[in-house]
Amino acid sequence: MTLGDFLSTWRGTTLENRVWRITVLVLVASNLILVGLVGQVERTVVLVPPVLEGEVTIAREYASQAVEESWGVYVAQLLGNVGPTTVDGLVRVLDPLLAGGLHREVMASIADQTEAIKRENIAMHFAPQTIAYDTATRTVFVTGQHKTEGPAAAPVLNRRTYELRVEFRNYRPLITHLEVYRGDPRSAHDAHPENANT
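Given the sequence above, the corresponding structure tokens read:
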């Protein structure tokens, strides 16, 4: 008796029915397991933005070095290029980027400087020249030429470093450390320049 003849009998039909029922149950179980596993996997987003030279990765709680450096340059330029007409916009842009512990301190400092900038009509300009990254502490150092000028005095030029750490929480960048000082990076023993003349 061939398989086709067997399946055309009542006994063959009931056996085929049982096999299909078991197969369907196994497929349903495997789909449920797959849905559970996919729901637990952390999503990683891969981007190739135009401002960065290569592929970067942003996960829920982590981003690649290039992304952290890019945010470091953005914040340094934001803080370093301020005038009487742009200082209020700086507060609105910077406010959601600051982590809780840093927020009050930075906003108080900006509020103090805002009054002086408006009262004395001071303009600040910052041109980043080097970016360094300390892999041990995940700290970005953006160093460049800083210029302060106002109508009552000659322009003041100096070298300035913006030292910051950017962390990601739910894909959102947060600045958890921010220091601004004159001169080259202070604690860049592992830091190395990534980009010159950026």
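The helical segments are 3-7, 10-40, 65-80, 87-94, 100-120. Try to locate this feature in the token string yourself.
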